[in-house]
Amino acid sequence: MIFFMAFTLYLIPNVLSDNTYSEVLPQQIRNAVVRIRHFFVEDVKAARRFLIRMRHPVPLHELFFHELNEHTPVQEIPSFLPFLTTGDTGLLSEAGMPAVADPGAALIRLAHENGIRVTPLVGPSSIPLALMASGMNGQSFAFNGYLPVKKNERIRRIQQLEQRAEKEGQTQIFIETPYRNMQMLEDLLSACQPDSLLCIASELTSANEFIATRRIRQWKQQLPDLNRKPAVFLLHRDSRPPKMRGRQKKYFA
Predict the structure, then answer these.
(1) Which domains, from first to last, does the chain contain?
(2) What phi and psi values does residue 123 have, to the nearest 5 degrees?
(3) Pairwise CA distance, residues 26 & 109, whole Å
(4) pTM as predicted
(5) DSSP per-residue string spanning 127-193
(6) Are 109 and 48 in contact (CB under 8 A)?
(7) Which of 63, 144, 167, 195 is the least buried, fewest Cβ under 10 Å from its Cβ?
(8) What was the pLDDT predicted at 251?
(9) 119 with 8: CB under 8 angstroms?
(10) Cα 116 to Cα 133: distance, rounded to the nearest angstrom
């Protein structure tokens, strides 16, 4: 039997774009953050900037930062348990939501296994924001993370996702490292059927936010500049008969 402790691991979202702290982060986040002394973070420097923005009342040199990122060996995770039991702690994302296309799931499992309450806080996440704005199926969707780096494997995977989108009517969502975005876009345009729908959502919540859903043949006429810009890609194919699709022709002709 697991006995639940009075301690809480807070899952703390971060902004997707600088200078949007007051616009997208609710007061609930600061209320939790100011009580925390131990933070599990992807990058200490970025975490310090965040806490300055949150006006943490304790000097930064008196807080404790434990790095947890894609380079953290899984076998190291249990060593974090003593810190989880010293009081309320926080898992802070570098951008967006912790453990959603982000490190941290193993730490959250450790908390559950040891009776530590886990509390997710409300904040921005590029994946649901892109889905909301895409006009694609929000009842059935799959997030596929990063696609293969090698071109041939990536194209094969894109074709698999397109087939799944058509067969199941499911929106397929994926991301890419910003400096490889244009390669991803080129492969999407060459691998997908001309009438497949592709949504590109870039620099979400920023002043330069770009969101557009078009058919592959339309994207070929004019490519957006996605180089080194955070972006989410969403792929969908109409599985309805042509007569039903005609109702949306004026939008996605």
Answers:
(1) 8-120 (3.40.1010.10), 126-248 (3.30.950.10)
(2) -175, 180
(3) 26
(4) 0.88
(5) HHHHHHHH-S-SSSEEEEEEPPSSHHHHHHHHHHHHHHHHHH--EEEEE--GGGHHHHHHHHHHHS-
(6) no
(7) 167
(8) 46
(9) yes
(10) 36
